[in-house]
Amino acid sequence: MRILSNTAVLLGKELQTEFRSRELLTTTIVFILIVIVLFSFTFDPSVSESRRFGPGLLWLAFLFSASLMLQPCFLKEKTNDTLSALRLCVADPFAIFLAKLLANACLLLLVQLLLLPIFAVFYNIKVGAVFPQLAMVFLFGSLGVSVTGTALSAISAQVRMRELMLPLLLLPLLVPILISSTEATAALLEEKPTLRLDWLGILIAFDVVFLTALWLFGEYLLEE
Amino acid sequence: MAKTGVYSFLVCTLMGVTAYAAFYIAPTEVTMGLVQRIFYLHAPSGMTSLMAFLVSFVGSVAYILTRKPRWDWLAVSAAEVGVAFCTVVLLTGPIWAHPAWGVWWAWDARLTSTLVLWLLYVAFLILRTMIEDADRRALVSAFFGVFTFLDVPLVYGSIWWWRTQHPQPVVFTSAGLDPTMRKVFYLSWLSLTCLMALLIRQRYELEQSRDELRSLEQELEAN
Question: In whole angstroms, what is the distance from residue B80 CA to residue B121 CA?
Answer without folding.
Answer: 8
